[in-house]
Amino acid sequence: MTTSLLDSSAAVRACVFTLAGEPFAIDVTQVREVAIFEDWTTVPLAPPHLVGVANLRGDIVPIADPRVVLGLTARRSGRKLSTLIIEAEGFEVALVIDGDVSLEAFGGITTLDESSPPPYAQWALGLLPDGERLVPLLDPGRILRALREERREER
Q1: Which of 21, 61, 106, 148 has a CA 20 to 30 Å removed from the CA of 44?
Q2: How far apart are CA 63 and CA 103, in angstroms?
Q3: Cα atoms found within 13 Å of the Cα of residue 114, Cβ hemisphere only
Q4: For 9-13, 38-42, 66-70, 97-101, which range has the lowest pLDDT when averaged over its residues?
Q5: What one-character DSSP code corresponds to residue 116?
Q6: Are 140 and 69 in contact (CB under 8 A)?
Q7: DSSP E strand boundaries for the chain
Q8: pLDDT at position 115, please?
Q9: pLDDT at res. 58
Q10: 155 band by pLDDT with thresholds 50, 70 and 90
Q11: Whether the Cβ atoms of residue 111 and residue 57 lie closer than 8 Å to each other
């Protein structure tokens, strides 16, 4: 994990991670911690995005894979899961990530261009300029709502 959060002039501090090899970010105020689960339980008849549940210091936490709503390729199977524990809309969820995580400071958020929206526009609050790339700043609340809606549609 790398950090560049000491920049006091930064407008946005974000946890940057990868999913299917692509960079994404979530505001640090919504990320509680990084957790690696080697022991977790699958849930019978669960929707595809619910990987399972795990014990996090005595609390049962759902483990969700955001790749489903983002339209990314499915994760490779395996028992070791790198996750970000996020809190949004009163829920705490472990979001599966690729494992690369950094805490970074950004000068601001670039608004989304409505004429040519990026692929993840409906899940992003904006884009964070990082050198030559723009990193989507995801809205965890929107993603969690989408995952809940997907579950309702499956019933």
Answers
A1: 21
A2: 22
A3: 0
A4: 9-13
A5: S
A6: no
A7: 2-3, 12-19, 22-27, 31-37, 50-56, 59-64, 81-88, 91-97, 101-106, 124-130, 133-138
A8: 58
A9: 92
A10: very low
A11: no
Q: How much is the pLDDT for 153?
A: 52
Place of tokens 């070791």: 80
Residues 100-154: pLDDT tens digits?
A: 899 999 999 988 876 556 677 888 999 998 888 889 999 999 988 887 775 545 5
**Listing from the earlier edge strand, what are the strands of the sheet with 22-27?**
2-3, 101-106, 12-19, 22-27, 133-138, 124-130
| Domain residue ranges in the chain | 2-154
Q: How far apart are CA 64 and CA 50, in angstroms?
A: 5
Q: Spelled out in words, what is the top-level CATH class assigned to the domain 2-154?
A: mainly beta
Structure tokens at 146: 């989408």
